[in-house]
Write a structure and sequence with these properties.
single chain, 386 residues, alpha/beta, Spore Coat Polysaccharide Biosynthesis Protein SpsA, Chain A, eight-stranded mixed beta sheet, 13% strand, globular
Length: 386
């Protein structure tokens, strides 16, 4: 067997493993659908929303929270993290307009202390503010300022948590997928996330795999306290998954896809999406140059080699490369259907993988330049490295 045929065979073996033995990640499940019975008693919930210069989307986000059709006590705490665009003014105007019957507290965040990322410091302040009021809190909903919620979203989250005794329930919000760059990159973003953290394994109490989507996460307050609170992950760039790991030690967790929580802000072009991916890609590798080299090499083998061999090689190398490419495309189909994209995008997964490899290298370069984890004017990666 030629060396190129061996490369193709290894790539095919990797894809068969991913398809057959990686927790069924590629099936784009579980999802937040089906009927969930209401609990005997609706527990008290506080939503905490960190916001930094979110005036363009905060009205929709807060209105969707204040308009929740929830049967128990529920209030919203928005933490304005040094916004300069009138975010808090817009949020207060929504509350005054009478949208929904829920209470909104707008809290001015204090100066960011050392060793904290901005979002986590805002969440910490919001949770502390809610607890200081002395009211009962059974669950905390941690949600981003650019997420819109269907009216029944909170009720379904709580019902699932109560039914299954979960310490955490998290939803991977439906992301914007309108522009060409979004169509090219966004379905793969969720696909790759599920490959790293198969949702079935996240829900399996016998596995250590833990993950969450920070845009919409419901946390049982007692479990959060036992896990050390937000302070326990204060310097983490990939904070949602770091918190999920700690919460899974306290009880079962669940993560699923949904259309009930949606991203309100489009991601725009390739450069903006690239910055979003690069913000945390190198952190995912533990800031290790060796892991970076290994990851890029693996992506070349798994994503780039199959189509090149299918198109340029001959004999067994061509057919093995073509087989790997087809398996790759098949595994992408459920996610493409979820995002209502053409199945032919599956054949583009090698090119998409190459772009993600570039963004991963870019993430490392930004870190080495002292700009790692840059978000809304703050360099945050170094906080996780102290």
């Amino acid at each position: 067997m030629s060396p190129w045929a061996v490369v193709a065979l290894v790539s095919l073996a990797v894809w068969l493993y991913l398809m057959l033995a990686r927790g069924g990640y590629w099936l784009a499940r579980p999802r937040d659908d089906g009927m969930i019975s209401a609990p005997p008693r609706w527990p008290a919930v506080v939503a905490v929303v960190p916001a930094r210069n979110e005036a363009d989307v905060i009205a929709q986000s807060i209105a969707s929270l204040l308009g929740q059709d929830y049967g128990g006590p529920f209030r919203v705490v928005l933490v304005d993290d040094g916004s300069t665009d009138g975010t808090s003014v817009v949020a207060k105007s929504v509350a005054k307009s009478g949208t929904g019957q829920r209470r909104l507290d707008v809290l001015a965040g204090t100066e960011l202390p050392g060793g904290w990322t901005g979002k986590l410091w805002a969440l910490h302040q919001g949770v502390h503010h809610a607890a200081a009021a002395g009211e009962t809190i059974d669950f905390v909903l941690l949600t981003d300022a650019d997420i819109g919620h269907a009216p029944d979203n909170l009720g379904r989250l709580v019902a699932r948590a109560e039914r299954d005794g979960l310490a955490q329930v998290s939803l991977m919000a439906e992301l914007s997928c309108a522009s060409m760059a979004e169509r090219f990159l966004i379905p793969a973003f969720v696909y790759f996330f599920q490959m790293l953290y198969p949702f079935a394994w996240v829900a399996d109490s016998d596995r250590r795999t833990a993950a969450a989507a920070g845009g919409c996460t419901l946390v049982r307050r007692g479990a959060l306290q036992r896990a050390g609170g937000i302070a326990a992950v204060r310097s983490e760039i990939i904070d949602d998954c770091a918190l999920a790991r700690r919460l899974k030690e306290q009880g079962p967790i669940w993560l699923g896809l949904t259309r009930r929580a949606t991203s309100l802000r489009p991601y725009g072009g390739f450069s903006k999406i690239g910055r979003m991916i690069s913000r945390s890609a190198y952190a995912q590798l533990g800031y290790s140059p060796l892991a970076l080299v290994g990851t890029v090499a693996a992506m070349l083998l798994v994503y780039i080699a199959p189509p090149l061999l299918a198109l340029l090689a001959d004999g067994p190398a061509r057919w093995l490369g073509l087989s790997a490419w087809l398996v790759m495309a098949i595994t992408f189909q459920p996610m493409l259907r979820f995002y209502r994209r053409s199945p032919f995008w599956g054949l583009a997964l090698p090119a998409i993988g190459a772009v993600y490899a570039f963004f991963t290298v870019q993430s490392a370069i930004e870190f080495w330049r002292g700009r790692g984890g840059l978000w809304k004017g703050r360099v945050q990666a170094m906080a996780g490295d102290t």
